[in-house]
Design goal:
single chain; 234 residues; alpha+beta; five-stranded antiparallel sheet; four-stranded antiparallel sheet; 7 helices
């Protein structure tokens, strides 16, 4: 994402958000592997992942069991070494992966709703308040963006997930409050940090519009708004 001022330092990943995304299955293969390596060395990382898996267990239970096709089951059994001591561990791992697949197959919006719900009811690490999260989506199977706002520091962490710009166009991020839309910058492909406008309030909305290359020429949305998300207190 780019804005009008000089770029700030690359934001550090939020450990709680990374653990939540791991439990939901939104990290890519490289990110998952890196977090799993961290978990083997760091008990706090492993504990965060276990805590999010426990919080998300009701979401998994809401999805009806789906039996794999016979050919898939047969292929999995053939892949297991006969009589190997680790076969039980592999079966347990496969069962966990099957449950994640069932959650992913539950339908459009389940992933975003689950993340918003469980982040909102999870234990707060900011007793003084001021931290909010928006799952920005447009009806797809996964969120377009996850935006974490801290009104005390005046900064927001933006993590693209499924945002997709039309060919030859840019996506621009906006905070929409009582005074109307205020630009936050362009949506890129990597996590970024942006500065919040003056007057950011918790009852606002985060929105994404389609704009000409480089963003809106007027400081106001000129194209269709394709993604929105309401701020939820953490």
């Amino acid at each position: 994402m780019s804005g009008g001022g000089a770029p700030g330092p690359e934001p550090m990943p939020d450990p709680e958000l990374r653990a939540a995304e791991y439990a939901l299955g939104t990290l890519d293969a490289q990110e998952r592997a890196a977090l799993e390596r961290d978990a083997t060395r760091d008990p706090e990382t492993a504990g965060r992942i276990r805590a999010w898996e426990r919080r998300l267990a009701p979401l998994m239970g809401a999805v009806p069991p789906v039996a794999p096709p016979p050919r898939v089951r047969a292929a999995l059994l053939r892949a297991l070494p006969d009589g190997a001591a680790g076969a039980g561990d592999q079966l347990r791992h496969l069962r966990r992966r099957l449950r994640r697949w069932q959650v992913a197959a539950a339908g459009s919006g389940l992933l975003a709703a689950g993340l918003a719900l469980f982040v909102a009811i999870g234990p707060s690490r900011s007793p003084a308040g001021g931290r909010y999260l928006a799952v920005v989506q447009g009806g797809g199977a996964v969120p377009a963006l996850i935006v974490r706002v801290d009104t005390r520091t005046g900064l927001a962490q933006v993590r693209p997930v499924g945002a997709d710009a039309p060919a030859g166009r840019s996506l621009e991020l906006w905070y929409v409050g009582a005074e109307g839309p205020k630009p936050l910058g362009l949506v890129g492909g990597a996590p970024s940090q942006v500065r919040l406008p003056q007057g950011t309030a918790p009852d606002g909305v985060i929105a994404v519009s389609v704009e000409p290359p480089g963003g809106s020429p007027s400081g106001q949305p000129t194209g269709p708004v394709i993604y929105t998300g309401k701020l939820i207190a953490e």
